[in-house]
Amino acid sequence: MAANTVRLERFITLTNEAAPVYSCWSYRADDPYAITVEFQTSPETWVTWVFARDLLLAGLKAPAGIGDVRFVPFEDQGDRLLLFQVESDEGRASWFLNREDAEAFANMTLDAVPVEQEEDQFDIDMLLADITDV
């Protein structure tokens, strides 16, 4: 793993189920606007979601997201939780995350690249070269 990478591996709980789901959350300073989450759906299969770091940061404070990824912070019997929902043409899923864990991950990303300093890390020339190389 590169020195500029933040990674959190953990089990999360399916909505209304006790079945754990293994997930890997990662953030790279050289891709400062994005967070990648991979979910293990079988021993050999992982599903990957990429979404804006700003969405997670906003979702820790208030409901956020109107597209394929949404976050809703709430409390349940004293537990601080974060509802994480994803949706695609193939279906949708919801998980409850421990909000303190999500906040710790978000803070690690902010330590790596503070808000409003993303463009200092982002190589727009490389991105343009990648998308125009057809």
Automatic annotation (TrEMBL):
<dbReference type="InterPro" id="IPR038658">
    <property type="entry name" value="SsgB_sf"/>
</dbReference>
<dbReference type="InterPro" id="IPR006776">
    <property type="entry name" value="SsgB"/>
</dbReference>
<comment type="similarity">
    <text>Belongs to the SsgA family.</text>
</comment>
<keyword id="KW-0749">Sporulation</keyword>
<protein>
    <submittedName>
        <fullName>Sporulation and cell division SsgA family protein</fullName>
    </submittedName>
</protein>
<dbReference type="Pfam" id="PF04686">
    <property type="entry name" value="SsgA"/>
</dbReference>
<keyword id="KW-0717">Septation</keyword>
<keyword id="KW-0132">Cell division</keyword>
<dbReference type="GO" id="GO:0000917">
    <property type="term" value="P:division septum assembly"/>
</dbReference>
<keyword id="KW-0131">Cell cycle</keyword>
<dbReference type="GO" id="GO:0030428">
    <property type="term" value="C:cell septum"/>
</dbReference>
<dbReference type="GO" id="GO:0030435">
    <property type="term" value="P:sporulation resulting in formation of a cellular spore"/>
</dbReference>
